Amino acid sequence: MIYTEIEYQSELYTKSLELRYKILRKPLGLRFTKEFLSDEMNNFHLAAIEDNEIRAVVLLKPMEDNIVKMRQFAVDSKYQHQGIGQKLTKLAEQFAGEKNYKKIVLHARKSAVGFYLNMNYTLISKEFLEVGLPHYEMEKILEK
Q: 125-136 pLDDT, tens per residue?
């Protein structure tokens, strides 16, 4: 398994969209809009790749004040619970630190809060609804 940055609008990016749709959007009856996707050119796209296939993907969106937002995290259902998400999270943290970001923030689905707590993220909000599902805002200060 290779953990790396992928290029926006590349073949691997297209495959990452397919995975994100399958895991994150389709179960909720949501589609990607042009407006939603147009913002992604300014994001960092990180992925776990095996045999030229995307097994997991996450986006990092630069925010203000040296903060990056982790979003659109998806692991192929056939590869969940194998440590791929943990390794991709560590890559995202290392990548963000190398780009001089000081903090990662994210909106975690309620079902993923335990995963992020185990990765030393902190809850910073009460439960709220996003895309019709309960979420929590979480953060992690990156070490130097």
A: 999 999 889 999
